[in-house]
Amino acid sequence: MTPPPRRLAGTLILAMAFLACVRADGWEPCVQVVPNITYVCMELNLSKVPSGIPSSAKHLDLSFNPLRVLARRSFSSFPELQVLDLSRCEIQDIKDDAFWGLDYLSTLILTGNPIQNLAPGTFSGLLSLQKLVAVEINLSSLENFPIRHLRTLKELNIAHNLIHSLKLPEYFSNLSNLGYLDLSNNKIQEIHHKDLHVLHDKPNLSLDLSLNPIDFIQPGAFDKMRLQGLTLRSNFDSAHVMKTCIYGLTGLEVHQLVLGEFKNERYVQEFDKSALEGLCNLTISEFRLAYLDDFPKNINGFFKCLVNASAVSLANLYIQSLEGLPNDLQWQSLELVKCKVNQFPMLELPSLKRYVFTANRGAISFSEFELKNLEFLDLSRNGMSFKGCCSQRDMGTTSLKYLDLSFNDVVTMSSNFLGLELLEHLDFQHSTLKQASEFSVFLSLSKLLYLDISYTHTEVAFHGIFSGLVSLQVLKMAGNSFKGNALSGIFTDLTNLTFLDLSMCQLEYVSQGVFDSLLKLQFLNMSHNKFISLDAFSFKPLHTLQILDFSFNKIVSSNGQELQHFPSNLTVLNLTQNPFDCSCKHQSFLQWIKDQRQLLVDAKNLECVMPPDMEGKLVLSFSNTTCQITKVIIIVTVVSVAVVSVIVGLVYKFYFHLMLLAGCKRYGRGENIYDAFVIYSSQDEDWVRNELVKNLEEGVPPFRLCLHYRDFIPGVAIAANIIQEGFHKSRKVIVVVSRHFIQSRWCIFEYEIAQTWQFLSSRSGIIFVVLQKLEKSLLRQQVELYRLLSRNTYLEWEDNVLGRHIFWRRLRKALMDGKAWTLEGTAGVENSQQETTALT
Ligand SMILES: *[C@@H]1O[C@H](CO)[C@@H](O)[C@H](O)[C@H]1NC(C)=O
Ligand SMILES: *[C@@H]1O[C@H](CO)[C@@H](O)[C@H](O)[C@H]1NC(C)=O
Ligand SMILES: *[C@@H]1O[C@H](CO)[C@@H](O)[C@H](O)[C@H]1NC(C)=O
Ligand SMILES: *[C@@H]1O[C@H](CO)[C@@H](O)[C@H](O)[C@H]1NC(C)=O
Ligand SMILES: *[C@@H]1O[C@H](CO)[C@@H](O)[C@H](O)[C@H]1NC(C)=O
Ligand SMILES: *[C@@H]1O[C@H](CO)[C@@H](O)[C@H](O)[C@H]1NC(C)=O
Ligand SMILES: *[C@@H]1O[C@H](CO)[C@@H](O)[C@H](O)[C@H]1NC(C)=O
Ligand SMILES: *[C@@H]1O[C@H](CO)[C@@H](O)[C@H](O)[C@H]1NC(C)=O
Ligand SMILES: *[C@@H]1O[C@H](CO)[C@@H](O)[C@H](O)[C@H]1NC(C)=O
Ligand SMILES: *[C@@H]1O[C@H](CO)[C@@H](O)[C@H](O)[C@H]1NC(C)=O
Ligand SMILES: *[C@@H]1O[C@H](CO)[C@@H](O)[C@H](O)[C@H]1NC(C)=O
């Protein structure tokens, strides 16, 4: 049934043709970086501007395509274009109005086109152009460069061309916004006074003349001229030329002067220390020097013409010593970047406010210096060690606000910033901090706003580590560790904190209340830790939290009920790269994820890892219905268990009642052998034997009492005895209430059973005999007893002749109630009782 080869081939060709059509119609083969906005069509062998790109495009990169010629209105279908890159498009010919219609174009890049024909109206219509990059376009003169009407132009880069003269055409005076002119790498050899006529009224211009082979500057050419910047790197082929050319700059007032060379382009071999002497006739605010091969060993006098500069920057130099700087230096800022030094340079510059010593080689350990007014100190990336840090003594200043010691070697925290209380910014990242968690290092830094101790090998063990940082807003401490991998209450003082990075800290737990004081926190990064569950409860106080990153943890699930406490102001929650458990028991968590998908990062790609049958499936595809059946089973089980528990509970609670019920049945015929069962405390046994038994059993008529010391069957459990022997065989119960009785637990136990019996037989069978006068308060402890006392027969024992007489009469009367009498005495009582009590 396979189709013949010829038909197959035909189908294929048709399909390919179809595909080709689709490609031609769409914006493909360009790369759509931002839909409708940014398109990159780099190196696609395009010979004309592609047509499928939306007219709303703002950024278009057509570099490295063989466009060759730009015809009129080549880009009129992109009226919104702001940035157009035509680098290395082999363009030789640009026609009039080529860029017509690009009213909003602000950047045009024509780098690397061998342009031979540039029509006078090439750039017409570019009403908003601010930046024109025409590097390496075979431009030999500015005279006919058709840019005179580009009044909005701010930056013109015509580096790497064939321009021979710095003489700027008159039309430059109409480019009033021009702030940056790059003429580097051209063919300018001589600069004459007459060339610079136009530059005189461009005081805001920065001019780059690097890599021009300058060998002559007419003295006075720059006199009374002001420039924003002048860059002269790799211009001179000998120290002598350099010196005379610098003299040629006499009279220039320049904000920033850059001298030196480039890494791979060295001209000056033997550098003369007096080369900079000519700078004395210039006014310079900022001076930069880079890649000077032969920087003097002894700088005595080298900087003498720069005493009035406010900022000096030295880069990529071999500085053997900074001793011998003039005393009257006014420098406020000094930068030493990527230099080679022999040791950490000694400095004594009272004027200095900002000192940057970074990425240098050769400084092994920090040594104290004296910079009285220093406010900003950056000593990062030197691989240096700090034996003591940090106090006023080390830095010789009390004004320090910014301190960066990051990317160094070991920093030993030996003092707590004594005298440096003004610090606002402190960075130690990627240096090794010693003793940082041994005392409250930052205690005095109540003005600190920013602290970075990321990757400093700090193990946080001490709770007071951040004490005193009441103003802190940003705390970065990624890549450290915590004792027991638990985050505990170290943030109590940080009430102004808005940013907290705790990523890569191997954290497993958050103790209770850790975030309670962080009422302004907006950003929290907990990624790359080892949390197992999303503990919503700890985040409850973070009402202002907006971004929470919990990616790359081991979060399986979360307690569903707690999720309602999740901060409500969250806008970004990153839970990617966690091993979610998509089983039914986490149903409410999974549902929560679905509900929150708006704020979850990459929600549609979150994957389940457990249980095995869900592995690799998407969390959002989890369906509740599969859980319904399981749920029913669970509910049934839970309900059954609950019912059984309740029954068991009830049985346990009413065990005696049930026993009684059973007992009732058994003894239900009312075999009352005894007239009364006596409940009493053993402490009152004397009274019971000597008074009660004597008077009732031996009196007339005699009563039969059930007394546990006498009548209980030995060996039978006491409770069963009481129930069987005591209650069921007795008509009445006499409770002997005394102080001992109330205090004795055993009596209370018996009494409770008696109550039950009363309840069951529903007759007022309890007679209370109160032996001593009892305080009300004592009685009230036994609420039930108190209540019964006031409801039932209640006799008070009085130990005097009259009192006894009345007592016995009343007790006998109470006991007689319901008793049937035969004259045959006690033996007959038992039998004749049956009929009467059967009524109960
Ligand atoms: C791009 O523009 C087209 C037409 O103007 C519009 O239909 C489409 O929604 C836009 N796409 C985006 C992502 O804005
Ligand atoms: C570029 O396109 C031309 C035709 O437009 C073709 O001749 C040439 O081979 C293509 N070059 C490459 C490298 O594809
Ligand atoms: C540069 O322009 C000149 C004419 O000004 C021309 O002779 C030369 O061939 C051009 N160079 C290149 C590489 O196009
Ligand atoms: C500068 O602009 C003015 C006013 O538009 C014009 O008259 C003058 O010719 C221009 N100068 C040059 C050199 O283009
Ligand atoms: C130069 O720049 C300053 C501030 O950047 C501005 O106030 C001043 O107007 C500018 N002068 C000229 C001539 O553009
Ligand atoms: C530099 O200025 C000093 C006076 O400030 C003057 O004597 C000297 O001639 C000047 N040098 C040059 C080359 O103009
Ligand atoms: C520095 O400024 C002072 C006072 O303004 C002036 O006397 C001195 O000549 C200046 N020094 C240099 C080298 O410019
Ligand atoms: C916390 O920040 C607020 C303003 O953001 C400020 O007014 C307050 O003084 C700060 N609290 C402390 C203790 O610095
Ligand atoms: C959180 O920290 C990790 C690792 O330190 C980092 O990759 C991630 O970008 C941070 N998250 C956010 C939201 O900045
Ligand atoms: C939540 O955010 C809104 C706006 O971003 C803000 O007005 C509100 O105060 C925030 N709520 C809390 C509790 O911070
Ligand atoms: C989590 O997502 C945020 C927002 O997309 C992102 O900035 C952050 O880098 C992500 N975290 C990690 C560790 O990739």
UniProtKB/TrEMBL annotation:
The chain crosses the membrane at residues 632-656. It is found in: Cell membrane; Cell projection, Ruffle; Early endosome. SUPFAM superfamilies: RNI-like (SSF52047), Toll/Interleukin receptor TIR domain (SSF52200). Its main location: membrane. Keywords: Cell membrane, Cell projection, Disulfide bond, Endosome, Glycoprotein, Immunity, Inflammatory response, Innate immunity, Leucine-rich repeat, Membrane, NAD, Receptor, Repeat, Signal, Transmembrane, Transmembrane helix, Ubl conjugation. One of its GO terms (biological process) is NK T cell activation. Residues 672-815 form the TIR domain. Pfam families: LRR_6, LRR_8, TIR. Residues 1-24 form the signal peptide. One of its GO terms (cellular component) is perinuclear region of cytoplasm. It is a single-pass type I membrane protein. The keyword Metal-binding does not apply. InterPro entries: Cys-rich_flank_reg_C, Leu-rich_rpt, Leu-rich_rpt_typical-subtyp, LRR_dom_sf, TIR_dom, Toll-like_receptor, Toll_tir_struct_dom_sf. Belongs to the Toll-like receptor family. This is Toll-like receptor 4. It comes from Octodon degus (Degu). The gene is Tlr4.
